């Protein structure tokens, strides 16, 4: 996986991972699904080789798919390893959650067993977490439910960065194995359902047996299933739902028959549902539970048709993807927030600032609060057709001209900075650059654990001291940045004083009280400036203030 200290790389990898997980459910057969699982490891998880070992009915595991090396694929695809040998491997080495890592120092005893494998010789690792050609990493795939039935094992090799995966990489591989198990189960389910439907159409003599097979597959499917009416006045009404779907939505089957999916979908997702075609349509959206909450699901449609009368009803497979969505949000949060303080990190700060800026500078005279509201809602204008005291490029408070990075009707409220340090009534986006005074001496004297505790407490005090909607971010080290919108020059100065006074009181760590001071520089975000220019301006003002207070005794410790 990518270097874990670079959150923007994690975000790129997260997008790749999201895409390959999405691709798992687009395969049309079990064989396609298995190959998609192997290809996804290469495309989204950063390994050069991947193998999918599938459990056969007799319990042994067969190499069902391979990706990354044509020669190795030809060598081992279709070969079988005994269940006993696999169970031995899955109990050796180190357990990383559900993953199993066997270092080359232990794996040499496996070279002669019957599990199909590829390996090459290589030198000893040069550093602790360097990957060795004979290291082995396995990701078991278990069926959903409490039984933990083994469906297969994903084997991976040769990470592109040459290192053993860290915590984030392990979690991503484990999540991918879980989603792969669901996709394989669903592929098997869809195959069984299709066979049942074919029997319903073509084998009239075996109709009762086919109906029972369909009922069993429908009722006892691990994920939700529904049959809806097609055509007529009741188009879309649910005719039948299985227990899994009823449990998922917290509604009994009798109540479910009163609804269609259009009645249950989240208002923001109704357009997506209507755009989903009947045959082969697929969508990820939210359905309402009985308690008023919503759950993320993946819908997949199939039309059950009569050869003479045409479409008869719609079969919908409903998969619960709430856990996947939650993991995606957690991974995105980790990539955009500081792991120590929980504050937005440098990348997230720059993204938020960039969203407020454009490349077209604009400056006008001061505006009152009433005039600013008038401007935002298309109110009073001066004789030039401009809103007094509000930074806009068109009447009504918004810019409707094309700007770099925007469309022809990009609704962008321009940022304007107050003139000088005197409060002229102009309200803008204040950027307060905070640098702690005396923090280094605390780190040197009491250690990094005490320093970390101080940073956490300072982050808490800064967050408590600002309004809801303001941003407090950790730029790095002992530097913080506060974004506060709608402030004048005097307001920003008052805020800096309040935050400084909030930081100064002693901080108790492990029974001792330590003190830090803070220097604040106030800059302003203004359209026409880049993000780096805004931060540099606030940083320079902070150093000016620090030098002006150089003769004031600041004590830490």
Automatic annotation (TrEMBL):
Name of encoding gene: cdgB
Keyword Coiled coil: yes
Gene3D superfamilies: 3.30.450.40, 3.30.70.270, PAS domain
Keyword Membrane listed: no
Keywords noted in UniProt: Coiled coil
Protein species of origin: Streptomyces crystallinus
Coiled-coil segments: 186-213
Protein known as: Diguanylate cyclase CdgB
PAC domain: residues covered: 281-333
Pfam families: GGDEF, PAS_9
GGDEF domain segment(s): 427-557
PAS domain residues: 210-269
Lineage: Bacteria, Bacillati, Actinomycetota, Actinomycetes, Kitasatosporales
Cross-referenced PROSITE patterns: GGDEF, PAC, PAS
């Amino acid at each position: 996986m990518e270097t874990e200290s670079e959150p923007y790389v994690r975000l790129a990898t997260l997008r790749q991972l999201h895409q390959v997980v999405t691709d798992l459910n687009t395969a049309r057969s079990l064989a396609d699904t298995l190959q998609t699982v192997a290809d996804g490891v290469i495309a989204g998880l950063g390994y050069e080789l991947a193998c999918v070992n599938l459990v056969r009915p007799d319990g042994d595991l067969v190499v069902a798919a391979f990706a990354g090396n044509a020669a190795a694929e030809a060598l081992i695809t279709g070969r079988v390893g005994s269940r006993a040998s696999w169970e031995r491997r899955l109990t050796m080495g180190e357990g990383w959650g559900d993953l199993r890592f066997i270092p080359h120092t232990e794996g040499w005893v496996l070279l002669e067993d019957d599990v199909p494998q590829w390996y090459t010789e290589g030198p000893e690792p040069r550093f602790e977490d360097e990957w060795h050609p004979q290291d082995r990493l396995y990701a078991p795939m278990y069926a959903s439910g409490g039984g933990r039935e083994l469906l297969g094992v994903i084997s991976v090799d040769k990470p592109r960065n040459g290192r053993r995966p860290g915590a984030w990489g392990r979690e991503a591989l484990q999540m991918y194995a879980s989603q792969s198990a669901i996709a394989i189960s669903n592929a098997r389910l869809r195959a069984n359902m299709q066979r049942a439907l074919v029997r319903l159409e073509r084998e009239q003599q075996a109709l009762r047996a086919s109906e029972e097979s369909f009922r069993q597959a429908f009722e006892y499917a691990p994920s939700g299933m529904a049959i809806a009416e097609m055509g007529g006045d009741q188009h879309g009404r649910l005719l039948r739902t299985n227990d899994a779907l009823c449990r998922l939505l917290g509604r009994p089957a009798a109540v479910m028959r009163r609804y269609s999916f259009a009645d249950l979908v989240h208002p923001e997702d109704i357009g997506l549902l209507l755009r989903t075609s009947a045959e082969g349509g697929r969508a990820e959206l939210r359905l309402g539970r009985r308690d008023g909450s919503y759950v993320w699901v993946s819908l997949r449609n199939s039309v059950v048709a009569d050869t003479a009368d045409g479409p008869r009803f719609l079969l919908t497979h409903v998969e619960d993807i709430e856990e996947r969505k939650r993991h995606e949000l957690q991974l995105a949060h980790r990539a955009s927030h500081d792991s120590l303080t929980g504050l937005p990190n440098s990348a997230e700060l720059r993204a938020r600032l960039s969203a407020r800026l454009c490349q077209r500078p604009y400056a006008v005279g001061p505006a009152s609060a009433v005039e600013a509201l008038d401007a935002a809602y298309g109110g009073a204008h001066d004789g030039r057709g401009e809103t007094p005291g509000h930074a806009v490029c068109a009447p009504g408070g918004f810019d409707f001209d094309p700007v770099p990075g925007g469309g022809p009707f990009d609704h962008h409220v321009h940022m304007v900075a107050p003139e000088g340090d005197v409060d002229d009534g102009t309200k803008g986006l204040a950027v307060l650059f905070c640098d702690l005074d005396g923090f280094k001496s605390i780190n040197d004297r009491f250690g990094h654990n005490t320093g970390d505790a101080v940073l956490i407490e300072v982050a808490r005090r800064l967050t408590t001291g600002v309004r809801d909607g303001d941003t407090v971010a950790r730029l790095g080290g002992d530097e913080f940045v506060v974004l506060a919108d709608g402030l004048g020059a005097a307001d920003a100065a008052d805020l800096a004083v309040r935050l400084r006074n909030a930081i100064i009181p002693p901080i108790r760590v492990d029974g001792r009280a330590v003190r830090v001071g803070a220097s604040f520089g106030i800059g302003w975000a203004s359209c026409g400036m880049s993000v780096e220019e805004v931060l540099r301006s606030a940083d320079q003002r902070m150093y000016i203030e620090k030098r002006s207070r150089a003769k004031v005794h600041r004590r830490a410790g």
